[in-house]
What does this fold into?
Amino acid sequence: MKIGDKYRGTITGIKPYGAFVALENGKIGLIHISELKTGYIENIHALVAVGDQVYVQVIDYDEYNRKASLSLRSLEEEKHHVGSHHRFSNSRYTFGFEPLAKQLPDWINQALKDLKGS
It folds into this structure.
């Protein structure tokens, strides 16, 4: 089991802080209340019930304790993700890495001069 894996499971228990899920791979995980959906959740019982079938994503896994932290919210956000241009595109050379690359040879020469002088 690793972060990012997606599993089907069944809600086996509900507490005020989250819902326990028996996964198809035989492991048990917890969906923290903050990972059930985006936004404020007043009543966890309004969202999930014991016996509900869910599709979850692993967001953390403690190999020592074999505890999985699961999320419904990450899959919800994945469905609504709108593609956008990458933040660091070539259209912004003055703000990206190109100015640093141009300045690098000068910095190297200055550093070599400083090392020879000491």
Observations:
- The two ends are 54 Å apart (CA to CA).
- The chain has a mean pLDDT of 83.
- Residues 98-117 form the longest helix (20 residues).
- The chain is about 25% helix and 30% strand.
